[in-house]
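Structure in, sequence out. Go:
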């Protein structure tokens, strides 16, 4: 069984049992005669939380004419300015053909500047403009930390979700590609 298949089977198995997370998956969940419950799937909890975050950010970002994806691109540039489109795309988990129109829109809004790398004309570099920096000086997402209702647990939950993401990425990258 591949690692990704194991993770899916484990998610299915956990959705139907009350065993501790360390319990081994011994049989397929479908053979145990239990019905599946969407609310017990970890992947669905993460997916639906992502959608809820999008809804929570919308009233904050919409008056600024920004989407959540545009906002996180700006935040990533604030963290490390003057990045190539490729490096920025890796950080945001976006392909360059998805990221490029987002960056063009941000450039048209005056928040970023795109320019060819003089050392390698094939690379496009992206930098925040002064207007982009001023926009990020506002604490746009601060109220969402409170909206999460996690209190002091917020940093621990954030680290746990990041660990989950990293583990899944490692597991899926370790699998041999099928033709």
């Amino acid at each position: 069984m591949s690692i990704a298949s194991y993770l899916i089977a484990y998610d299915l198995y956990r959705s139907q049992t009350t065993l501790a997370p360390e319990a081994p998956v011994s049989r397929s969940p479908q053979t145990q005669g239990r019905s599946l419950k969407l609310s017990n799937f970890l992947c669905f909890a993460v997916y639906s939380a992502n959608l809820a975050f999008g809804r929570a950010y919308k009233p904050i970002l919409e008056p600024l004419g920004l989407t959540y994806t545009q906002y996180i691109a700006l935040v990533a540039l604030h963290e490390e300015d003057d990045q190539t489109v490729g490096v920025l795309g890796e950080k945001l988990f976006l392909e360059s053909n998805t990221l490029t129109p987002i960056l063009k829109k941000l450039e048209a809004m005056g928040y970023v500047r795109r320019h060819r790398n003089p050392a390698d004309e094939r690379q496009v570099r992206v930098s925040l403009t002064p207007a982009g920096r001023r926009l990020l000086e506002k604490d746009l997402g601060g109220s969402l930390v409170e909206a999460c209702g996690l209190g002091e647990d917020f940093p621990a939950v954030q680290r746990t979700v990041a660990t989950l993401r990293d583990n899944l990425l490692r597991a899926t990258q370790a699998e041999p590609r099928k033709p």
